[in-house]
Amino acid sequence: MRVNLMPPIPAGRRFFSWWVSLIVLILSSLVIFGVWVYREQSRQTAGLGKQIAAYLPEESKIRAKVKEREEFTADHRAVLDYQKTVQNLRSENMDWDQALGLMESALPAEGRIFNVQVKGRKLEAMAAFSSLDGIAYFQDQMKKSASVKDFVIESVEEAGAVREVQIKPDTAKVIRFHFYFKNLASGVGGGKGGEK
Which UniProt keywords apply (predicted)? Predict the structure, then answer.
């Protein structure tokens, strides 16, 4: 029988070649991964470079147009400001004679309009009628008009309760109403007249 009196070999020395092989394998994997990442980034950078090169001529054309527009604007500032001001005034000013004529045509024979106020595109007014039927007729006629948007009767009161104007007879009905006028006759006011 043989007896081994030598101390046991430590695991680090016994599997030294395995440990070295594992370390080499890990390092080589890291190197391969790093090379792959580098190549992928290089490929993406080259693709972005091609896209940028494709957009450069277009960008230079746009810059030239912008520069030309800025020069034109600088040379003709006064005329452009005048045109813009005129456009704004046309869009803000409505043909209120037309709106008043529309209200007059919608009134029954006994109806009267008074206390008319204009705020932007909104027209507020009061009207007196001898009966509730006259109010209903006026409301129907106003809502039928294509030039009137959001016609609303705010209140109906007895003539004696109104302090702004003395109305005869005291049994007459007074309404407060408002609406937004769309000027359909002119091209400028027609498109924007109904906006609030």
Answer: Membrane, Transmembrane, Transmembrane helix
For strand 173-181 and strand 148-158, is the pairing parallel, antiparallel, or unpaired? Answer: antiparallel
**For residue range 125-137, what is the model confidence (pLDDT) as tens digits?**
888 888 888 899 9
Tokens matching residue 79: 């005329």
3-state secondary structure of 194: coil
**Cα separation, 115 vs 1, whole angstroms:** 131
Same domain, 24 and 110: no
pLDDT of residue 44: 94
Strand partners, 155: 176
Neighbour count for residue 186 (Cβ, 10 Å): 13
Helix or strand or coil: residue 112?
Answer: strand
**Residue 31 lies in domain:** 1-75
Contact in structure between 167 and 159 (CB atoms under 8 Å): yes
> Quick check: pTM over 0.70?
no
User: What count of residues does the chain have?
Assistant: 196
Answer yes or no: do 9 and 67 share one domain.
Answer: yes
The confidence score (pLDDT) of residue 193 equals: 40
